[in-house]
Amino acid sequence: MNAITDLAAAEQPSPASAPILSVNGLRVSYGRIEAVRGVDLAVGAGEFVGIIGSNGAGKTSLLRAVTGVLKPVGGSVRFDGADTTGLKSHAMVARGLAMVPEGRMVFADQSVRDNLVLGAFSRIGQDRAGVEADIARMIGLFPRLGERIDQQAGTLSGGEQQMLAIARGLLSRPKLLVIDELSLGLAPKILDMLFPVLTQLNREGLSILLVEQMASYALAVTHRTYVMENGRVLFDGESKALAGDDRVLDAYLGRRGKH
Amino acid sequence: MEAVTQYLLTGLSVGSVYAMVGLGFYVMWTAAKAVNFNFGDIFMLGAVLTVVAMDQGIPLLPAAVLAVVVAAIAAAAIERGFVRPFNQEANAIGWMLTTIAVGTMIESATTALFGSNPRGLPSPLAESPIRLGGAGIYPQELLLPVALVLVAVGLELFYRRTMLGRAMRAVAWNRTAAGLVGIDADRITLIAFGLAGGLGAMAGVLIGPVVQASSTMGGVIGLKGFMVAIIAGIANARGVVIAGVLYGVSEKFIEGYLSTAARDAIGFTLMVLLLLLFPQGLFGRKEIKKV
Q1: What's the whole-model pTM score?
Q2: What superfamily does domain A2-96+174-251 belong to in CATH?
Q3: A94 in contact with B at a CB cutoff of 8 Å?
Q4: How far is CA A215 from CA A60, A195, A254, B233, in A?
């Protein structure tokens, strides 16, 4: 854990400086069930922001509404200077927002290479050379993907699939990468390898919004963190400060033995 | 012996039609998890529109191409108007009714405009039969298996080697994930229905000179194409090709050794039994999806 804490960027971009993403009063419903009940949230350009909260807090629904997988019933989403409320996900990708979905959702019946190429779907017509260069860069970032480049994605381990899902997301050259439950079903050893990669990408200028049930990891790598419960943001703040906050320690870091 | 050759050849020919129509169902199903149930009408449009275009003085080949393109556009329009709006929820079944409804409309409209009598689709390859191993067959009929092989190989290359084909497979695997890499899944589905329509219409054009063009020629063939797709396990293209050809050949043997009347009764019974024995289809796998 110490290694990860050390990697967290020391210089923190201010969230006030022109947010790349700002969400206002966002509401999401499934029929009569309200999953997100008016959430405000912002990610500054170059910032690494986390959302933590227990299962069913509305984190995934929030992300799905932000990335256009589902339509919000209320509120607004602004991305990169434009109102993108209700835009579909393929249109959001074209604008520079990529999402690594919960459960990874790699195209299991296609090769690792084809998954990566599909990640560049929105720009491959114009920039084939750039896509090839980016694929090489991803293999540099995740050498395991290079070893398995011609294998079907469904034959990869969970950790390798997560690497592929991240690399696939990066191939659209996003301005903001949204990651839903990076740690889901993965061993700590793999997480200790994946989180530093995110920190590195963030340092290179990528804005990241990370939803994570493993609060300790999220607080260690992000600049700021939102805490969600029951479809609302309970509070937010600097991740370093929250890591010592009693409310967070009790509910999400298992100080009293509950986790 | 000559009879056996005859049954094999004509069976191969009609089986190729079933297989091509079945491949149309395969293409639609993989993209949308829904199909145009009255797909036989797109098949019919291929033949009927060729005759109509030739009436206007257009020569056979351009008329055939025009007919296939128009039928493909009609198939795509059916997706947009009658499948997509009724396939929004998981497990939606509205599209079953709406595609049958629009198919019935197309058939009635065709009867009204084209007439109820079958009309010949003149082709130089269907003028006089050639003899092959003691059997007589029109060269036109031999065109069908050739076209089937080309279509099957072409589809395989399309799905594996082209960006559009990969995107179509991605949509088939997981629409949400496809959207998240920038693929417009709705647009891909529209294209898939157009592509399927082109395949179906092409089968209609190719068999038209042998069976004549009529507004009702698509009904049973559409049903049989759907059946061989299901029997093969609808998500397996090679399986659909094999099942289609086998069904066509078995039909001709039943016709030859028993009677034309027995053909469909026995054929459909066989299909039901096969489905009972292989609920996933002969070549189907369980749809494994990691969640």
Answers
A1: 0.88
A2: P-loop containing nucleotide triphosphate hydrolases (3.40.50.300)
A3: yes
A4: 15, 13, 10, 45
